[in-house]
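To fix ideas, we now present one chain and its tokenised fold:
***
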Amino acid sequence: MNTQRDTAYSPMSTVAAGWALSVTFVVLFVICLLLALIFPNWGTAQGWVAWIALFSSAPITSVQVWIEGIVFSIAFGWVSGVVFTTAYNYLIQSKVK
């Protein structure tokens, strides 16, 4: 049985956060790219293209945009995971003291 004392100050796993954020960024990238390709004339398509441009400068219809987008989504996920868990674990540890 978990009690508040057992879970209140447990450190976050950097590996779990890195993979979770990487998967999240890849899924969001793929959804945005597919929607931008399927519905290019929607008003919101410019927002999707802006999201895609964060990960690749290749033309939206090229294979290169898929490769760069997925690779950079994974890289950004890991960078975000490391930064987030480092800050989180530092802050909860300082609260315990």
User: Anything to note?
Assistant: The chain has one domain: 15-96.
